[in-house]
RNA sequence: GGAGGCGUGGCUGAGUGGUUGAAAGCAGCACACUGCUAAUGUGUUAACCGCCAAAAGCGGUUCGGAGGUUCGAAUCCUCCCGCCUCCGCCA
């Protein structure tokens, strides 16, 4: 959510932003409704003031005088009720429109429709061009995965990780947690079941014309299964006013993650690259409302994940996401993409974005800065998502005999030098 | 799942229809005073919305949330959400 005062003063900027992000939102309509809304507020406030005075007078009157007075006040109340109804209707539309206004992308964000137009910023590691086996074959060879029983039990995209597949996953989470805790992140295990307001608050659910809800599971209790711990960790501080000296708040939150993948039935249908249920350690940060501060932490978040990729010795690149690949609230986003030899390309493993105060406005997360209350800034980035990372990990570390080398940094958590 | 109870300001906690945005206490802040590291006194301290360039100021809203009854609701009614206790079940 943006500040309506900011929108009023920067309508063109926001129209440009919506265009760059390929979001629909009718700013002119919003401004017209806002105008109407403010006029109605002024009118009903005044009517209510008069009505309040008259009501207080009632208490002092007696008998006939009182009856007559009450009769008149009743009539005025009726008019006030009509005005209030009108205002509520207008505010309903206003609120919906406000939720659909996208955040303004940073000027450095390139134009573009989709991830194919993201810009490569840097690469790390030496990529393998010879294929070897793909991760599915490797996992079968080492008895790490069962997708047949996975779909028998869990349905489409279901899977079981087993033996070294299970142990390797655990080792990856542990390495990640240790790395982040060392850097001052507080370890959390966060709920995946979340109430709707958290999805709206983080911008996963936008206004009425953003069909993003399709991709989120909803339970029969109207609780949702979140696709990331970002949602619950941001909800953690909803409606709070914090002290400035508490910042920055650094969280490393582990949680199961659920995605319906409604728009991608045809994509990555084999294997465990794209699944409905996975596990992730997410980095989440709340900091002071300062652009430079956000930028600094954004780089830091990205660096943390790069370090993890480097410890795991997986070649990767960092891309700057184009406008069309940004979410409603994101100002700027970097994806880290690990090298997947069998596809001969980089594929997304991490996604780092910052939001300025877009999320904290929706979630009402503030802090005290002297005499002022300000909305905090928020950021997040993947630290480790399994099982996807296994695809890159296994393919990049395979030997000609199909055995898998375990990088040194991971051996502390996975007590073998080799699989197979 | 069954039975009961409860949700008031940063915290504790009064308040069952008429100046109660809300007593009192604690905490915080400011000033005063005392020479001893703290006590005492006085004052002060909520958020949001609108008018305003802004501050001040003025008006409005807010006692878990949404509706309703009433001239008037923290107080009465309905639904929802959350929390607590006991029983049941259970990792």
Question: Mind sketching the topology for me?
Answer:
Blueprint lengths: L3 H6 L1 H11 L5 H32 L4 H37 L19 E6 L10 H7 L3 E2 H8 L5 E2 L2 H19 L3 E4 L3 E2 L1 H7 L14 E2 L5 E2 L3 H7 L4 E4 L5 E10 L18 E11 L3 H21 L4 E5 L11 E9 L4 E10 L3 H6 L1 E5 L2 E4 L1 E10 L1 H9 L7 E2 L2 H4 L6 E2 L1
Helix pairs in contact: 3-4, 5-12, 8-9
The chain binds one RNA strand of 91 nucleotides through helix 3 and helix 4.
Can you characterise this structure?
- By secondary structure, this protein is of the alpha+beta class.
- It has two domains: 26-99; 115-419, BirA Bifunctional Protein, domain 2 (2-Layer Sandwich), CATH 3.30.930.
- It has helices spanning 4-9, 11-21, 27-58, 63-99, 135-141, 147-154, 164-182, 196-202, 229-235, 291-311, 358-363, 388-396, 408-411; strands at 119-124, 145-146, 160-161, 186-189, 193-194, 217-218, 224-225, 240-243, 249-258, 277-287, 316-320, 332-340, 345-354, 365-369, 372-375, 377-386, 404-405, 418-419.
- The strands form five sheets. An eight-stranded mixed β-sheet has the order 1-11-12-13-16-10-9-4. Strands 5-7-6 form a three-stranded antiparallel β-sheet.
- A hairpin with a 5-residue loop joins strand 6 (217-218) and strand 7 (224-225).
- Helix 3 (27-58) runs antiparallel to helix 4 (63-99) and helix 5 (135-141) packs across helix 12.
- The protein binds one RNA strand of 91 nucleotides through helix 3 and helix 4.
Question: Helix count?
Answer: 13
Helix content: 40-55%
CATH superfamily of the largest domain: Bira Bifunctional Protein, Domain 2
User: Given the C-alpha coordinates, what overall shape results?
Assistant: elongated
Structural class: alpha+beta
Largest sheet: 8 strands, mixed
What's the level 1 CATH class of the largest domain? Alpha Beta
Give the number of DSSP strands. Answer: 18
> What is the rounded Rg?
26 Å
Order the strands across the largest sheet as they lie in space: 1-11-12-13-16-10-9-4
CATH topology grouping of the largest domain: BirA Bifunctional Protein, domain 2
* Average pLDDT number: 92
Distance between the termini: 52 Å
Bin the strand percentage.
15-25%
CATH architecture of the largest domain: 2-Layer Sandwich
Q: What is the count of distinct domains?
A: 2
Contiguous uncertain segments of 5+ residues: none
